[in-house]
Amino acid sequence: MAVGDVPLEVFASIRAVVAEQTGLPVVVGPSLPQPEHALDAKRRQYSSPAVLAGIFRQANGFSGKLLGVTGCDLFIPMLSFVYGQAQLDGQAAVISTARLRQEFYGLSSNTSLLLSRTAKEALHELGHTFGLIHCADKSCVMSLSTNIHQVDLKLGRYCAVCSRAIEEKVKR
Ligand SMILES: [Zn+2]
Ligand SMILES: [Zn+2]
After folding, report:
1. What's the CA-to-centroid distance between 51 and ligand 1, angstroms?
2. 122, 18 in Cβ contact below 8 A?
C-alpha cells in the first residue's frame, strides 16, 4: 500500500518481483495519506516506527503481510536514516524510496535503477516479516545495506538459504 504519493510503476515492479520470489499472491491495498503525524520537523524526516504502526493498523483481520511504500525519508532515533523497517516475524513492513532515487545523490533520474532498488528493499523487509535475519551473503537481498552501493551490489533475489527459509514459512 502507498503511504503518501508513490508512482504506479513502483508498485507494478514490487508486485511482480515479490510474487515471483515468494510465490505468494500480491494485491495492492488502499493508500494511506502522507504520514504527517510521523514528521519530525527538526530532522525533516519521518519516524519509521510511527509510519510502520500506521500500516499495521490497517491489518483489520487480514492475515497476510502488509508492505507500505512511501516517498518520505524515514529514520529511527539511533540511525540517521533507514531504507525500511519491518516487524520481525510479524505482519507489517515499510520501505522508503527517498534514498533509492538517483536524484537524492545529485544524479539524474534513473527509473530502472529506482525500480530494481525498490524491489530489493521490498524483498528485504518482507523477508524480515517472515522471520529472516540479515544474511552474510552480500549478493542476497537479505544482506544488510547501510549505503546505496551495498543496495546495488545485491542481486534482486533471496539466496538459496533464505529462499528455503521463506518457503518453509509460507508452507505453514
Ligand atoms: Zn534488514
Ligand atoms: Zn540470504
Report:
1. 17
2. yes
